[in-house]
User: What shape does this take?
Amino acid sequence: MGLAVMLCVAACDVSSSGSNLTSSATGASTPGGAAVTPESAPLISGTPAVNVVAGRNYSFTPTASEASGRTLTFTIANLPGWASFSSSTGQLTGTPPLSSVGTFANIQISVSDGQNTTALPAFAINVLAPLTISGTPILQVVAGSPYSFLPSTNAASGTTLTFTVQNAPPWATLNPATGELAGTAEAGTFSDVVISVSDGAQSSALAAFSITVSTPIAGHNPPTISGNPASGVVAGSRYSFTPTAFDSEGKALTFSIRNQPSWASFSPSSGTLTGTPTSGQEGDYPDIVISVSDGTQSASLPAFSIKVAAPLSISGSPSTQVIAGKSYAFQPTTNAPSGSALTFSIENRPVWATFSAVSGMLSGTPTAAQSATYPDIVLRVSDGTQSVALAPFSIKVVGQLTISGNPATQVVAGKGYSFQPTTNAPKGTTLTFSVQNRPAWATFSPASGLLSGTPATGQTGTYSNIAISVSNGTQSSALAAFSITVTKATNPLPTISGVPPTSVKAGSPYSFTPTASDPAGKTLTFSIQNKPSWANFNTATGALTGTPTAANAGTYASIVISASDGSGSASLPPFTISVNQVTNGTAALTWTPVTSNTNGSVLTDLAGYQVHYGTSANAMNTVVALANPRLTTYLVTNLSSGTWYFGVTAYASNGTESTLSNIGEKTIP
Assistant: This one.
């Protein structure tokens, strides 16, 4: 028999199969000593220059100080290849060559006093090409005709330029913003015309030239020409421009061009300039002049330039992790010429970060409350014509690593000592512990931070400045230094024993009372280290009791119960209590009733269904038989935390069973 079943998984707190599921867990806080607050970090300030002209010297020295007078050492990230850096003063200096024109981004200068480090915000240095001006002015024109000459520069698009002219013809004016010299020509020769340009830091001038204006031929009107050619094209894209020309006497017109780009073709019959520049042909093609002639006189369009730009690109490798309370900064780079008018944008900006639409800088300092992963961040840049984006990335904000605990400060010679600190690192994090000034009688575990040992009678005294630290490979934290005093055993010590339970379910009572006695019959007083916040402790009996709630779920480590007779004491070995969540998850299964065989024939002997489920899609070993062919739903109960997988089969009265339905899944928190 061929049967087929379609399954849907749903429950009041359940996402249906195929949905994206998220889960969260709140780690229980562990009582104990607070983490040590680090000493004040050194201060650093200064505003580095962001531009330098190739061939000129660049220099920046930050100002730094340290309250304790420690020696400061400077470091730099992303040092430009043309620059040098002093680790003793923080000075960044150098002279970039012409080949270094471009933007050097994400430069960051830091200062350290050996314990703490402070950094300036990341910055960029734009190496600018020396300013140049070029073009071939029209040297001859007929009186009464319009004259126009527009020089070009190598300044980046958007740069503020100021043009000036010396010995301009009286009939011509100069546009100080564009450098265009224009007017209606009057007869005569006008010599030593000089056009200059300045960007406020540099200046450059064309060679002096002369304009000769001839007298027109009487009774003849020259042709006219007009049009606005595009001033730019992206390499790999097609360029085309056709001017409009007219001759009032109906004469045949012929077009000509001066300074035709190498990648373009030109039609003498129509004046069309067209072509597709390729990669490698990027650059400015200046002083292009298209003219028209009726065989006797001619007219020309104003000189124009075509800038062939490379396809815009954006690059950079943003850091994907930042520590809460620490600054984050990333600035992408582009292949656009330095100074280009670019507009940056961002998708899915983290709430703790700011973003510059001018520079693309993403920066900010997340708080501990903002610890999370911020996914699918996309940075995009546009030059007004093209737009490109970095690949999406994520930033994970991780909490500041802390270490805590209250180490015992006294032990009797001949008795065991044990202390293990706790951290806020997530379960499974690889940690490395270290110790300074470890007592000779003690051993230390770099994996757990456990300090333990039994001092001998001859090892009495005080062991000072013991410091335990922890590192996760990125951060480190240390307990306050402490001392352990080893005292002589002057009288028989009390004894204490018992095996405390190491786990309890949230909502269930916990109880443990040790067994203790004193050989001298003295009254005993009990004490505890690292008592769970949800528990009560009886100093007269040593009883540890309490009922943790669901909010207390987690691990409570390094609990030590001690008994003292006033002169000496004894302790149980450190133990841990795990508070486990009580899970009783459910999953509601719904399936389509089976009415036909897979060959299309009517099903007449359906006997029921079987529900299969388990924690692996390949091992759904728990089976519930439902001997009712009319059922189309079933509620699975008593599911523990984790992801569960479900399937349904149908079976006939003769025992024939269908193949498994589609597999549904559900995650129990």
